[in-house]
Amino acid sequence: MKKLFSVLKYTKNYKGYLTANVSFNILFAVFNAVSLTLAMPFLKLLFEETNLMETGLILLKGKPEFSLSADYIKDISNFYLAGLVVTQGGKIKALIIICIIIFVMTFFKNMFRYLAMFFIAPIRNGVVRDLRNKMYKKSMDLPLSYYSEEKKGDLMSRMTSDVQEIEWSIMQTLEMIFREPLTVIILFSLMLIISTKLTLYILILLPIAALFIVILGKSLKNASRKSKETLGGLISVIEETLGSLKVIKAFSAMNPMQKKFEDINQTYYKQSVNVYRKTDLSSPLTEVVVTGILMFILFIGGSMVFTGELTGPLFMTYFILASQLIPPIKQLTTSYSNIQKGVASEERIDKILLADNVIIDKPNAKEILNFTKEIEYKDLWFAYHKGDDGHVLRNINLKIQKGKTIALVGQSGSGKTTLADMLPRFYESDKGALLIDGTDIKDLTTESVRKHIGVVTQESILFNDTVKNNIIFGMQNVSENDVIDAAKIANAHEFIMQLPNGYNTIIGDRGGKLSGGQRQRLSIARAILKNPSILILDEATSALDTESEKLVQEALTNLMKNRTSVVIAHRLSTIANADEIVVMNRGEIIERGNHEQLLALNGTYKKLCDMQSFK
Questions:
Q1: Alpha-carbon distance 613 to 615, whole Å?
Q2: What is the pLDDT, as a whole number, of residue 386?
Q3: Which of 297, 324, 353 is the C-terminal boundary of a domain?
Q4: What one-character DSSP code corresponds to residue 554?
Q5: 567 in helix, strand or coil?
Q6: What is the pLDDT of residue 77?
Q7: For position 509, which CATH number holds?
Q8: What is the DSSP string of 169-197?
Q9: What is the pLDDT of residues 337-369, one digit of tens each?
Q10: Do 341 and 476 share a domain, yes or no?
Q11: Which pairs from 7-11 meet CB under 8 Å and 24+ separation?
Q12: Where are the extended beta strands (E) located within 359-473?
C-alpha cells in the first residue's frame, strides 16, 4: 500500500492545487450521490397512485423525525413530495420542479468534476517538469563511472517514457484516493440506510472483484517494468546506430544491425501487447463481476418487493444507487492498474535520483582562487568499481610544477586519460590524495577547481549550435573580438569565415557539418578562450592534417607557455619538448624523465619511439 501511493510524494510542491482538487472531488461525490437519491420522489410521482386527501394526511402528520432507516427516507420523501404537489397545484408542476432540481444538481456535479480536473492539470504537468529537471541535473552531477554501467538509451527512456507514466499515475492516484472511494462510501451509506440486508450481500460478494484486481495489478506491474527496460534497450540501439552510421555502412553491417533492432522491437511489441491486454482486461472483468452481483441483488430485492419488505420506488432507488457503483469501481480498477505501471516507472526513475554521487563538495569546502605552486598525485589508487581489485591507477606519485608541461605516454588502457581525468575531479580516488597547492582536491569546491582547467579531448565534443556558441560554451560576457582572436590562434578563423554564416553558422549534431580537423580546431579555440591556468590536452592534434597540425601545434606551444599542461599523446613526435615525460603501463608509472633521459634508459619509451620510427 505504501508503494501504491508513493507517487504522491512528487506533489509536495503543489499543496494548493492538491487541496483544491481534493475539495472539488469531494463536492462532486456528494452532489453525485444526492442527485441519485432524487430518483425516488421522481419514481413515486410517476408510478404511485395518490390523491389530494392522502397528500393532505401526509402533511398533517408533519415532518418526520430523523433516523437512519429506510422508513425515514420513505417518509421524508413523501412529506416533501406531498408539499410540492399541494403547493404547486398538481403532479405535473411538481414533476417540473423535480426535473429542474435534478438538472441543477447534475450541473453542479459536473462543474465540480471539471474544477477538480482543472486544478490537477498544473500538478500533472508540473511534476513532469520537476522530475525531468531533477533527473537532468542529477545526470550531470553523477560521476562518469556511473555511465560505464548504464545504457544511454535506457536513461533517455527513464527521462521521457517513465516520467510520462508518473503523470498518469498521479492523476489516477488522486482519483482513487479521494473521488472514487468517497463516491462508493456515500453510495454504500445510502444503500445501507435503505436496506441493510441487500447491502450486506454486496459487501460479502465484492471482495471477489477486489481479488481479481489485486492479482491482475501485480502481474501488470511486472509486465510494465519489463517493457520499460526493453524500451530503454530499443532507444539505446537507435542512439548507437545514429552515432555510428559511418562505421555501420563501412563494414556493411546494416543487416545485422537491422536484425538486432527488429529482435528488440519484436520483444517490446510482445511485452507492450501483454501490458495493454492486462490493462484493458481490468475494467471489463470488474464490470462483469459487479454486474453479476447486481443481478443477484435484483433477484433478492425483487423478491423483497413481492413479499412487501420494500416498496417498489424504494427498491428502484436502491438499485439505481447500486448500479452507480459500477463506474467508480471500474475507475478504481483502471486507476489501480495505471498506478502499478507508475510504481514500476517510479522504481526506474529512483535508480537515477537515488544513485550515490560520490563526488560531492564537503560542507566546508574552500574555493581555489589562484593556482600558484604545484599539482601532486600522492599514493593515489583508483578503480571504476568500488571494491574491485582491477585498479586502473596504482600507487601514483607525481608532482607537476606550475608552468611545466607533463606528457603522459603508454599503450592504450595504461591509465593515461584516467590519470588526467582525476584532475578536474571526473573521478574520485579510492586511496591516496590529489593535491593542488598542498590542498586535497576533496577539500576544494569542484566548480572552482574546474574553472582553472581547460580540456581538449581526443574526440571533439561539439553541440548542434552556432560556431560562436560552441567556442564560448560555458562562458559569459565574451566579446566577439575575443572569440575571433581565439579562433585565429587555433587556426580556425579562416575556415569559419568560409562557412555560409560565418561565426553564426549552425554546425549540426556533434559538429557533423565540419571535417574532423575543423571540429578539433573549434575545440582548441574553446580551450584557448577560457584561458585556463591548467590545460589537459588529450590527443588534441590527432584529428588534424599535417599542415593544420603544424600550425595548431605552434599555437598550442605558445598557449602552454607559463601554464601547467598535461598532454596525453600516442604520437610521440608531439611531446618531445615536454619538461617531463611519464610512461605508464597497466595503471603504474614505470618510467619518467625528459626525452633524452628516457631514450638513454633503453626501456619502454625507447621501444615506443622505435615502433613509431621516431628520431
A1: 6
A2: 65
A3: 353
A4: H
A5: strand
A6: 56
A7: 3.40.50.300
A8: HHHHHHIIIIIHHHHHHHHHHHHHHH-HH
A9: 667 777 777 777 888 888 777 778 888 888 888
A10: no
A11: 7/166, 7/169, 7/170, 7/173, 7/339, 7/342, 7/343, 7/346, 8/170, 8/173, 8/174, 8/177, 10/127, 10/130, 10/131, 10/166, 10/170, 11/123, 11/127, 11/170
A12: 374-382, 393-401, 405-410, 431-436, 439-440, 453-456
Task: In the chain, count H helices and then E strands.
Answer: 22, 10
Q: Which residues contact 224 (CB under 8 A, 6 or more apart)?
A: 165, 275, 340, 341, 344, 345
| Average pLDDT along the chain | 77
Give the Cα separation of 27 and 479 in Å (integer): 60
Q: Which of 353, 383, 417 is the last residue of a domain?
A: 353
Question: Is there a domain that residue 467 lies in?
Answer: yes
Q: How many other CB atoms are found less than 10 A from the CB of residue 35?
A: 19
Number of domains in the chain: 2
Could you tell me which residues come within 8 angstroms of residue 6 by beta carbon, excluding any fewer than 6 positions away? 343, 346
> What's the mean pLDDT in 244-270?
79
Residue partners of 613: CB distance under 8 A and separation at least 6: none
Residues ≥6 apart with Cβ < 8 Å to 89? none
User: All 3 cell numbers of residue 371?
Assistant: 593556482
107 inside domain? yes
Helix axes 70-88, 91-141, angle to 10 degrees: 120
SS3 561: coil
Q: Is 512 within a domain?
A: yes
Q: What is the pLDDT averaged over residues 204-227? A: 74
As beta bridge partners, residue 535 has 454, 565
250 belongs to a structural domain: yes
- pLDDT band at 379, cuts 50/70/90? very high
Please name which of 466, 467, 471, 450 lies closest in space to residue 523, comparing C-alpha atoms. 471
Report how far residue 550's alpha carbon sits from residue 233's, in angstroms, rounded to the nearest whole number. Answer: 43
pLDDT digits (tens, 9 = 90+) for 551-598: 667 666 666 767 888 888 776 666 777 888 899 888 899 988 888 888
- Indicate whether 4 pLDDT > 80: no
Model pLDDT for residues 302-341, shown as the tens digit of each residue? 888 888 777 777 777 777 777 777 777 767 766 666 677 7
150-154 mean pLDDT: 73
pLDDT at 41: 58
Asked whether residue 347 falls in the same domain as residue 464, the answer is no
Work out the end-to-end distance of the chain between its first and last CA atoms, rounded to an integer number of angstroms. Answer: 74
Map grid coordinates 480498477 to a residue: 333
CATH number for the domain harbouring residue 41: 1.20.1560.10
**How far apart are alpha carbons 225 and 157 in whole angstroms?**
12
Domain residues for 467? Answer: 459-531
Give the dihedral sign, CA 503/505/507/513: negative
Q: pTM above the 0.85 mark?
A: no
How many other C-beta atoms are found inside a 10 Å radius of the C-beta of residue 312?
Answer: 13
